[in-house]
Design brief:
Length: 431
């Protein structure tokens, strides 16, 4: 008899197997019990017929409690009514641990209660689906960049300077020096690109922004590619190809998870490169036409603005050429307009907001020195970054994709707190 997992069960059609599992729910009548089982790889129904098992096994099936663990033996058979397509005809149950008073019962619970029990909430079918989609996005990310010749480089988490200013960073002492938790690995990835050509990082970042919106986390994960000899237009093509690849990978490999979340996949099926592009100037005009009469040129866009812009398109949309004054010091000016920079934000459909921010970086030493002076950057803390323009500078571009917002969009989840295993929010550091 083969020991296997639920996800591999279809490979053992009409065969008897043994699976280690937990009970998520059950119902029973006088002569039959239906056990909803999970094992971490998937979910399956176990059917226990009184006449087909010992009296001891049937009584165990009727009385077993939610989240009790077991080894369960049975035959894998097709079941057209199941989303999974198979069920387990149970012949034996070996109880491992009997759980009592499991706090998350099959009823409605408030968000705060579920967040307090996040360590257990992860076991639910919905959370399982979200985390599997997150995992597929990560897997597809590695595949895309590895297949396209990128080298993964890991930037530091503790830094002595900031990529975009220090007002919203977590400060800490690094022995006798001031240090920060990284808000971006970008500056270090630029150094890596000058050594390896095309690189990407994937790691945690931290922002001490006191925001409670559904789009914000204190700790989140970023994918940050950086590319030497790549200019702005080529970078946009790489971004749209990457996002298209990830979405199509999820559609192909996470059908059951999308179904479990009741995700309407019709909008995701449209996510194929190329993506539409509008300039910041055009976005301002579009917003005014949509009733945002107070928006002025030079202002950054908030969530309502991004949502309104996205509603005009059926794919993610690039907003390009933002004003210099609202973007980071390292972004290269537009060759024909000094008041805007060669940058783009990628706005996801359906109100999920910005998922990518990117730009061509300044590669001219004199201009970067001017930016240092304008932004009050100390030469000592940023000297190494300046030297990238001093020794073999080349045109280069990069971008950062926020993993949790991307998971929220693809999975159709309302709040990013469900898209990371243990979210860190403004008022939450537990569990």
């Amino acid at each position: 008899m083969k020991t296997t997992t639920i996800s591999q069960a279809p490979n053992y059609h009409e065969q008897t197997v043994k699976i280690g599992a937990w009970l998520t729910n059950k119902r029973s009548s006088g002569k039959i019990a239906f056990l909803q089982l999970r094992d971490g790889t998937g979910f399956i129904q176990g059917v226990v017929v009184k006449n087909d098992v010992s009296e001891e096994t049937f009584q165990l099936a009727k009385n077993i409690t939610q989240e009790s663990s077991m080894y369960i033996t049975g035959k894998i058979v097709e079941d057209a009514r199941s989303p999974f397509g198979y069920e387990l005809q149970v012949s034996d149950i070996e109880l491992i641990h009997e759980a009592h008073d499991y706090p998350i019962t099959p009823k409605e619970h408030g968000t705060e209660f579920l967040m307090d029990h996040r360590h257990l909430w992860l076991r639910s079918k919905r959370q399982h689906a979200v985390m599997k989609i997150r995992n597929e996005i990560i897997r597809a990310t590695y595949q895309f960049f590895n297949d396209n010749g990128y080298v993964k480089i890991d930037p530091p988490i503790l830094t002595g300077s900031s990529a975009e200013g220090t007002t919203e960073l977590f400060h800490t002492k690094y022995f006798d020096e001031e240090a920060y938790l990284s808000q971006s690995g970008q500056l270090y990835m630029e150094a890596a690109a000058m050594a390896f050509g095309k690189v990407f990082s994937f790691g945690p970042t931290f922002r001490a922004e006191k925001s409670k919106t559904r789009r914000h986390l204190i700790e989140f994960w970023m994918i940050e590619p950086e590319m030497a000899f790549v200019e702005h237009e080529e970078s946009l093509e790489i971004q749209e190809n990457y996002v298209s690849f990830v979405v199509q990978s999820v559609l192909k490999n996470c059908k059951l998870e999308l179904q479990a979340l009741d995700r309407d996949i019709s909008s995701l099926e449209k996510v194929q490169a190329p993506f539409p592009r509008i300039t910041y100037d055009e976005a301002i005009e579009l917003l005014k036409e949509k009733g945002f009469t107070d928006i002025e040129w030079g202002e950054d866009f908030g969530a309502p603005h991004e949502t309104a812009i996205a509603e005009s398109f059926d794919k993610p949309v690039f907003i390009t050429n933002y004003p210099t004054g609202i973007k980071a010091f390292y972004m290269k000016p537009h060759p024909e307009r000094e008041d805007v920079v060669l940058c783009a934000d990628l706005i996801a459909p359906e109100g999920y907001g910005e998922i990518i921010g990117g730009s061509q970086r300044i590669d001219d030493l004199e201009l970067m020195e001017q930016r240092y002076e304008e932004h009050g950057l100390t030469g000592e803390a940023y000297q190494w970054y300046l030297e990238l323009r001093k020794y073999g500078s080349v045109p280069h571009s990069g971008f950062g994709l926020g993993l949790e917002r991307t998971v929220a969009w693809i999975a159709g989840v309302d709040h990013v707190r469900e898209t990371i295993p243990f979210p860190r929010l403004l008022n939450r550091l537990y569990p």
